[in-house]
Specification:
single chain; 290 residues; Rna Polymerase Sigma Factor, Chain: A; Arc Repressor Mutant, subunit A; two-stranded antiparallel sheet; elongated
């Protein structure tokens, strides 16, 4: 008997559970939708009084609406775009929408205000963007074409294939890529994963200055300079003079020929022979190939 009662209780709980869950979902959805506490009484009071106080009260109650729109838009923007800046700009759109809103048209203020808030935010971002809108549109078009071709071909497309897909000449594609290449910006403070150990580091730590020599490179450069002094001493007097006049005094081959009383072609031959000798001595010393 006890077992039968337990089984019946279990069945009753299973039947009640979906209803309870559905009620919880309904309550949750209702709470999520209503984020700004504005009633018809608030609007009626404002239409009746038309005072700055009622206007400020209504606008302050719609601030969560601005934050909602700004938060959704921020998901598609880079991290460098601050949410607080979007909200501040959105408030300007809210004020303009409030000033131009006509309640007699039978449209809710939220429905009327959201596109104006979005528009104000987009206008501000476009004003801050130094890249023309046509270039941005061109960049998106090339990116969509590249992705479509990559999906169809199963590999990165060639430039000729990309130009054919976009129905432009190869020269026009090169010009477009040149314009688009300056639209991308990377933040040096952005945290990324390193390829060697998959560790998170700021991007600036992964940037390599190829113009600055490392400690080992500086040592090799000094060693090469000191050996060149020894190698130049092994040249003949005539070869040393040509090297000195050409590289240290910066004279032309014609001027060197006048100084040495020989023809310009003869100076060129001596210079070529000297360079070949020095190159061979350096290769032999440092075991270089090629």
């Amino acid at each position: 008997m006890v077992t039968v009662i337990k089984n019946e209780l279990k069945r009753a709980k299973k039947k009640q559970k979906p209803e309870v869950l559905s009620n919880q979902v309904k309550v949750t959805r209702t709470r999520r939708v209503k984020r700004w506490d504005v009633t018809e009484r608030d609007w009626s009071r404002h239409h009746r009084l038309k005072s700055d106080e009622t206007r400020k009260t209504l606008l302050s109650k719609y601030i969560p609406l601005v934050r909602n729109v700004a938060t959704r838009m921020a998901m598609g923007f880079p991290r460098s775009v601050e949410l607080s800046d979007l909200v501040s700009t959105g408030v300007i759109g809210l004020i303009e929408a409030f000033a131009n809103f006509d309640p007699d048209r039978g449209v809710k203020f939220e429905t009327y205000a959201v596109p104006r808030i979005r528009g104000a935010i987009l206008d501000e971002l476009r004003a801050l963007d130094w890249v023309p809108r046509s270039t941005r549109a061109k960049s998106r078009e090339i990116e969509r074409a590249y992705m479509a071709l990559e999906n169809d071909l199963g590999r990165p497309p060639e430039k000729t294939e990309l130009a054919k897909y976009l129905k432009v000449s190869l020269e026009e594609l090169h010009d477009a890529l040149h314009d688009v290449s300056g639209t991308g910006i990377l933040s040096l403070d952005e945290v990324i994963y390193r390829e060697d150990d998959n560790r998170q580091v700021p991007r600036i730590e992964t940037v390599i200055d190829r113009e600055t020599l490392s400690v080992l490179g500086e040592i090799e450069k000094k060693e090469l300079k000191s050996f060149l002094n020894v190698a130049i001493d092994r040249l003949t007097k005539q070869e040393k003079l040509v090297v000195a006049l050409y590289y240290y005094e910066e004279l032309t081959l014609k001027e060197i020929g006048e100084v040495m009383s020989i023809s310009e072609s003869r100076v060129s031959q001596i210079h070529t022979r000297s360079v070949i000798k020095l190159r061979n001595m350096v290769r032999e010393k440092f075991a270089l190939t090629g």
